[in-house]
Amino acid sequence: MLKEPIRTSIFDLFKIGPGPSSSHTIGPMKAAFDFLQRANASSEIKQLDIENIMIHLYGSLSATGKGHGTDRAVIAGLLGWQPETCQPDNFTELLKDTEVKYPVKIHENEVFINAKNIVFEKNRYESVHSNTLIFRALSNSNIVFEEEYYSVGGGFIQRKGENVATQNDKEPAFPFSTMNEFKEHLKKQKMTLTELMIANEMLISGLSRKEIFQKIDDILETMHKAVRRGLHHRGLLPGTIKLKRKAPILYQQAKSHASTTDSFMVFLNAYCMAASEENAAGNMVVTAPTSGASGVIPGITFLLRNHYHYDKQKLREGMLAAAAVGFLIKHNASISGAEMGCMGEIGSASAMAAAMLAYCAGKPIETVESAAEIAIEHHLGMTCDPIGGYVQIPCIERNAMGAIKAYNAYLLASSGNTADQKISLDSVIKVMRATGKDMSKKYKETSQAGLALSATEC
Ligand code: SF4
Hints:
Number of helices: 18
Pfam families: SDH_alpha, SDH_beta
Pathway: Carbohydrate biosynthesis; gluconeogenesis
Bound molecules: iron/sulfur cluster
Distance between the termini: 55 Å
Shape: globular
Strand content: 5-15%
Helix content: 40-55%
Strand order of the largest sheet: 5-2-6-7-8
Structural class: alpha+beta
EC number: 4.3.1.17
Radius of gyration: 22 Å
Oligomer: single chain
GO molecular function: L-serine ammonia-lyase activity
Number of strands: 9
Number of domains: 2
Family: Belongs to the iron-sulfur dependent L-serine dehydratase family.
């Protein structure tokens, strides 16, 4: 029987917003904004004198939220800022001055809040997701309005009691929840991946074909702006690690050795790390599928555009192939580092990029599937253990490694007969889910083990 079909929009998967983390920055900003809207829409608290707002962070948000800018994101959302339109410079200024209090407007009340209103809870809270936020509005020291949210990865949020699968009730034209069902549609309808993805997106988002392509162009442009900025920004990244940006150095090296055999890899490393360093700096990036993994697809598409001279249409179609794989992983496993470790973030990005490379090269759907499967297979069990809770080590280099693995997965999938491939994309996604469940919490975005303990912050 068909599982609940995928109803995610391409533009929920690829979202523009400030770095460094989709689950710890974009998700909390959206949750805070949603709380603000709901509080202002509530007639029950309209006549009350709201005197305070408290925000409680649990799980991975509590463990690594400081390094990921969760506190700034919460303030930004309560100020009515949205990820796509907020100004990165204003965003990074938030909470720098501990004396500043920020006005939050609920009905006729203006409540002033700062870092003291955000509690990084030490105790565990048994809820449906490790990334939990609770917002409370108080009047006369009593809680008069409360909402609980889960930041489920890639900037997606779920409100307590809401089923994420049915948040969007629009029916896709060609419902699918697995790669097998996806391929069946292609075969039965004699259609291409592009046609299927566009037909579904038109119904899910209500956009026309032209508008969808325009939005993909905008997403690609934002990705490539991040790459271009990162290739020229030098100096230290924010935070206590004092990590030096490396992308400009790699770029110079690639240009001076442009004729050597490994220059293609050095260029790709530079492009991926450039976008990833911009993410670590809190600048505008695109979740692909998360902010931590926002260097893989921008790096690959920048390479395809500037070295292989792929045209606009080819890149748009490549993005659709990447989205199809991202949907399948999100639906049947997870793209969240707090649930899957880094295989959910870089592993997913690598699989999406591998599918894109195969599809852009004109390969059949079986090769596209195979490329994605191989990329996931070789990220299984990869831990998430960021040093100091910053999306820097191992995250930045991991984007470059994820892209290189994607390229190799595409090459491996393109040779031989795909019918000989023993593992399907659907099965490896199942394995991914089971592996993520079995992994110790210490390796799922808590900075309590692994690399996070191997280096002292300085
Ligand atoms: S290690 Fe991977 S999953 Fe963890 S924060 Fe870094 S990029 Fe995200």
